[in-house]
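User: These chains co-purify. Model them together.
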Amino acid sequence: MRRVLGFLALVLAAVALVAILHSPPPKAEPPANFTSSEQCRSCHQQIYDEWSVSWHALSWSDPEVRALSNDFQNADCIDCHAPQPVFATGIAERVLPRTSRRGEGVDCIACHELPVGHSSGGRVAGTRTVPDAPCAPTALRDLGSSAFCASCHDQHDTTKQWRATDYAAKGIGCIDCHMKKRADGSPGRDHTMLGGHDIELVRSAVDFRGHKQGDHWLVEIENVGAGHHFPTEERARAADVFWRPLDGAEHPWKQVYRFRSPYHHEALPDTLLPAHETRTIPIPEASSSAPVEVALFYSLKPYWADPEHPDPEHEARLVKKLELRP
Amino acid sequence: MRFVALFALCLFGACHKQAPSEQTPSSTYELRAVNKAELAALPKPAEPPALEPKLVERLRSQIVDRSHLLGKMRALELADIASSADAAVVAADALLSDAKSGDEEKRSAIEVLGGIDTQASAEALAKRVDIQTSHEPWIRETAAFELGRLSSDVVVPGMCAQLKYETDAQTVIWIAALLAKHRNYSGLDGLRVLGTGGRTPEIRDHALSMLSNLAREAGFDDPDALYAAWNSADTEHKVPREEPSPALRAEIWMRVADLGVFDLKHVDDARFVLSRSPWWVVDVLVAALHEEEPHLRACVAQSLERMGARASAACPELVKALEEPRTAPAVATALAAIGCRDCLPALVACTHKGRGAELRHAAARALGALGSQPAIDALRTLFESADTPDLRQTAAEALVELGQGALVAPLLVESLTRPGADHDAAETALERWLTQSADADAPGAKQALEAWRALAGDPNQTSTVAQTSARHAARATLLSERLPALLPPKK
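Assistant: Joint model of the two components:
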């Protein structure tokens, strides 16, 4: 009898072993809590790499932001620079500030985590529903909608500006320009999310032309590519038109015009250029009988070190430059 | 047989192993539509009186004519125009809105408004003090001065908000005076700045004399004593108090409503006003802590936070609000800013495993700000047991605040370069620890602090992202080398 039982035990153990060896590899456990974008990295390395060099990832640590917000002593900036998950605070609702993992800025969790009890039943929002994946993402259209970006970016009216454009009417949204599909054809979209920091993208937003008008030159700037005003992110951003004689001598740039929306206390007009519109700017000082150089510069912050003598070549970025000759 | 059973049991156990989940305490904190109810209960504004257009036109001409008069005649004419009250307000307001009106005509209109002590004239003058619509400094200054002569307190929140944006020194001085008239001393900050840093001697003298006047009028010999009393819990009511009018109370509830709007600029204006309001607004904010709208509720807690010690009366209610999970992090921050020492046990409990991550971080920072031995003990426990490096870093930063830097310095050094860590916060905490150590003459600390500061870069230039990363790395290397000498020997 003992031999029989021993034999049966061996058979059972062998069956169990075979069953284990032939079963699919164990599913990676999803984390109990999402506490860092690092948790996403093991499965989503490419996306993590893209995000980690993006301005979303730098939204807390960018020295420029830290300087402008007085190292976030101006606590209002924290709301969007280290936001709680958008799905928790509400699509197109105002975000609320985080107290944890601020170093990650606008991170994976801020956009993808779903609150406990979300109607989808999921914990992570994605573009595909993949129940077998460790984080089991649930496809939610809201994630790619422009309303999703509005929670932060409409604080500066960018989404509002976009809604008034032909792009919005045609269904071309934020991600179509700022989160393009990858050139290598790999699935998903590029999480580098280029914007105003990418001068090539800024260049594609405007057409810059110059003409003679009577005895002086004028320039025209047309918003041909931005799905919102140029520049957007009002107040902090600015674009400036400069000119100088083109006679072989060294001349400093002279400012002619500024595209910008002022702060509350600044008694200045709002001069942002809406999408599809053209602005004509005369340069009365520049005689059309002599050649001149005109340029459009883009600034990430609205102030010049010396407002009387702005130095665009060092303090701003060149968008476009033209030589106008009689 | 036993082997098979054990094997099967292990298999079963492995299949059913569940990840621990973060527990959120079920909240019993009462939430309701507080703001909606308060706004619905507000008295409806009175219908504007029907005015005879001819009368308004005649008064407008009178105001224009008055601009040419001087002395007694000018004063007599003002009294005559002001006797028409509502119609005169409409006439003066129209004249001020007319781009064709001359400066002297506008000055006359502002003086007329200052001679009519009604809510309508106060509101008309407040419009002229608003820098967002009134761009000429002399108009804002004159209107603020005239507004100070009126008794209506309904303009107080609006004037308080102006202090956030006003760039004209004289206007700031007159706004401070009119706020103080209604026992709101939030203008003292501006006066103190202008008193020492005003652009001209005249501005500095005017600010200092206004400070002295306001202090004397409030029963204080010294402006600094008034300033300290205003920014304290003031349990003995040393700072004079004034009951708000129903109109002002309504205005404050409307500011509370603004805390829930989308535009953060409006939210911050409201928070600015509420946090600079006097004693009775604490009760309003405590009631609004029960507001069902979570954005509004969080900003109510932030408003109390920014009141600081002046919101001490809110401490018991804030401790209760720690039970409401979505507001609790903002509440913990508020408790620390106010300096509620009785809340330490509640805050310690908030750092425990099982509470939300956001709350644990906020509670750790609050303990770091409040201090005392129980706080240190709780933070040490958190530092040693926290399940994420991020939470350990927060506990470490708080321990530095409480003079326990030597315990946590190695983790902070690691946090200078760890991906995803808050490198800047680690850097700030380490610099604080080095400074504390140098001040205490700890061996090698002064040299380490000097070497650390030498890596700071140009203070007049904002560094780039790459420069900042390089600085963090260099400082991490520096301290890694020096830590053995800086830390006390292990027992």
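Residues 54-230 of chain B form a domain with the Leucine-rich Repeat Variant fold (CATH 1.25.10.10).
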